[in-house]
């Protein structure tokens, strides 16, 4: 009897020591996230593949997990990236949770199973790999936001704000064009940064196949929709709003948290060169930025005990958008308030300086 108990204990402990149990509700440094990606691909060989689609400035791989059931037919895509801003650690935690959820449920949840047949999920847990690693270095670098490329000649600082570097009204508003020390320095030209280029090439090469583009940030509890420029309106603005509001409702049902929905200038601040705006300009209909918890109490240093509830509620919101985009494309189900103008509005506008205390 005594021996039997001892044996059980050993078995229990060894399961943990072998690292089988990945803790989704802790923040993980990059090497652990990379191991997790490799392990996930190993655990689900029929549905998960790792795709390398670029290199960072410091020559690290930018990888995503492609998740879906292969049917032989050409499939639609759902894009999700996390960690474009280094210090927003809850974002990579969410991407990992999202992957875990769809992989754990697709065999029992018929809706997830259907979507896994019709679409492939392209999930990048950490897009700004160099910046993320730098934010883990020590206390002085914890709040690093940008990538790690050097500034132009004559400027001593490093880093470009990758979410100001995309080809979408680039350099017009909510950016710093000249001071490379600024946290919103937008680079020397559109897509000057290898990380932005990787997304532009990968998604842009097949943008007609993507139904939704979700880019995950913190903080503020917001669902931001195109466009960052106050004078440009998405052709499906009403539908984006309607779907966003329903997603916020879904979020609220989980733990009662309020998320505000709207365009960046209406609910946060105007900006240009964001990946979300670029995705919408490419024709991807449902492009949203998630600003996860909280509203400033802890900000970028969201305590680990909030990872689980934050992920649970955001999963519900993301799933609402994804399900809507899927059902509309596959079954032709859509809301009544939709406008389908295909032309994209571009305006030549004067750059307006914008300052803000906190950048998300
Ligand atoms: Zn951000």
UniProtKB/TrEMBL annotation:
One Pfam family cited in the UniProt record for this chain: Peptidase_M14
GO molecular-function term, one example from the UniProt record: metallocarboxypeptidase activity
Signal peptide (UniProt feature, chain positions): 1-19
Domain of life of the source: Eukaryota
Obligatory cofactor(s): Zn(2+)
Domain Peptidase M14 residues, every copy: 26-325
Active-site residues, as the UniProt record annotates them: 291 (proton donor/acceptor)
InterPro entries with a match to the protein in the record: CARBOXYPEPT_ZN_1 (IPR057246), Peptidase_M14 (IPR000834)
Record PANTHER family: CARBOXYPEPTIDASE O (PTHR11705:SF19), PROTEASE FAMILY M14 CARBOXYPEPTIDASE A,B (PTHR11705)
Family: Belongs to the peptidase M14 family.
Protein name as annotated: Carboxypeptidase O
Organism: Scomber scombrus (Atlantic mackerel)
